From TrEMBL:
InterPro entries: CFA/CMAS (IPR050723), CMAS (IPR003333), DUF7884 (IPR057206), SAM-dependent_MTases_sf (IPR029063). GO terms for biological process: methylation. This is Class I SAM-dependent methyltransferase. It comes from the Bacteria. It comes from Paraburkholderia bengalensis.
């Protein structure tokens, strides 16, 4: 009886998808019967439902329910990963018949405690997967953040080096300065700063595997006399620094803690110092999650306790924390290109990653990287670099024009 009811609902759903979306998808059921979900000669995506229980993921779909069905192998999907993600977004955006309106998933605002122990566990869950895993699809310096494509034709390695150099130019780093890098990853930025400027640098991370490899890379680069890597929470750092950078880290702070986070940076900055925050933001004006359940999937499987503020909230809390924003730049299209590079490299090494992580984690990361590329491409999320100084300081800390950033 249940089979008949679900089967009838699925027939209604398929007819609605054909009429409203006309997708280049061939859907194959657990019994081997196939249905086309659009008018096309050759499907771009082949989707197989492996058990009847997975029907629920389609009757009221979201990126979370569809992603979870794929991760649990209740469904299998073949095709180019960009086409697969595009189909998932279109299905998730289809209003549920019962509501007659779009899903409210994008307006949710999840909040987490963000204690030191919770944040350390969340960071280690994501970044301690395996250094060898990240080596497979990141650039040679293992920079796990948005690259900078000056002309749009750069290789991934070139774009990541240009991104680091752009940051160092924006903060006007000079010999004799001290630099704190909050969330230093595998050490690429502090190593580059020491090599180019002879700067004394401190890089902090909560990831034990990042810490170990960053130490090794500092020694290999022969800058151990200039660079100190610490396994440390930003709330435990003391002292004063001429320059502070934070790249891809404030997403882990929590919206309610942003003012405290920026106040901490303010307290660590010298009076004439410059800081720069580079981070992903929500494009929902209320700082809600990315739409269609994407944020729920990421929190569940990829980035526990991640919270994205809208750029307006980032600027407001930065000012409340005692910092004056001096320059703001949107790098969204640069992250699209970066994620396209990462996705291509991930797909090219699919069998190696499957063998390394197992099928479940392979599927999680496959949909995560490709889904993020799509989310940035359609403005569901964005990313900004914000250069700042302590509030109520002289205005001459940076030159009159932005030309100095690009020398």
């Amino acid at each position: 009886m249940l089979d008949k009811v679900l089967g009838a609902k699925l027939q209604v759903w398929m007819e609605r998808v054909r009429n409203e979306l006309d997708l280049p998808v061939r859907l194959t059921l657990w019994n081997g019967i196939s249905h086309d979900l659009g008018s096309f000669d050759t499907p771009l995506v082949s989707l197989r439902i492996n058990d009847i229980g997975a029907i629920g993921a389609f009757l009221d779909p979201s990126l979370d329910t569809l992603g979870e069905a794929y991760v649990r192998e209740s469904i299998d999907i073949d095709g180019k990963v960009a086409d697969i993600v595009d189909v998932a977004y279109k299905l998730s955006a289809l209003p549920a018949p019962s509501t007659g309106g779009a899903s409210l998933a994008g307006k949710l605002m999840r909040k987490f405690a963000h204690t030191k122990s919770d944040d350390k566990a969340a960071i280690q869950y994501h970044y301690d997967v395996s250094n060898d895993f990240y080596r497979l699809w990141l650039d040679s310096k293992m920079v796990y953040s948005c690259g900078y494509f000056e002309y749009g034709l750069e290789t991934l390695d070139e774009a990541q080096e240009k991104k680091i150099d752009l940051i160092l130019s924006k903060i006007r780093l000079r010999r004799g300065h001290t630099l704190l890098d909050i969330g230093c990853g595998w050490g690429a930025l502090v190593i580059r700063a020491a090599q180019r400027f002879g700067t004394h640098c401190v890089g902090i991370t909560l990831s034990e595997r990042q810490y170990d490899l960053a130490l090794e890379r500092v020694r290999e680069a022969q800058v151990a006399d200039l660079v100190e890597i610490r396994l440390q929470d930003y709330r435990d750092v003391t002292g004063k620094f001429d320059r502070i950078t934070s790249v891809g880290m404030f997403e882990h702070v929590g919206r309610d803690n942003l003012e405290e986070y920026f106040a901490r940076i303010q307290s660590l900055l010298t009076d004439n110092g410059i800081a720069m925050n580079h981070g992903i933001t929500s494009t929902d004006a209320g700082s809600g999650d990315s739409p269609h359940g994407g944020g729920t999937f990421i929190d569940k499987y990829v980035f526990p306790a991640g919270e994205l503020p809208h750029i307006s909230l980032a600027l407001k809390t930065m000012q409340s924390g005692g910092l004056e924003p001096l320059d703001v730049e949107n790098l969204r299209r640069h992250y699209v290109r970066t994620l396209e590079h990462w996705t291509e490299r991930f797909e090219a090494r699919a069998q190696t990653i499957r063998a390394m992580l197992g099928e479940t984690k392979y599927r999680i990361w496959r949909v995560y990287l490709a889904g993020c590329a799509h989310a940035f491409a359609v403005d569901n999320v964005s990313i900004f670099q914000i250069v700042c100084q302590k509030s109520r300081q002289p205005a001459a800390v940076i030159p009159w024009s932005r030309r100095y950033m690009y020398r």
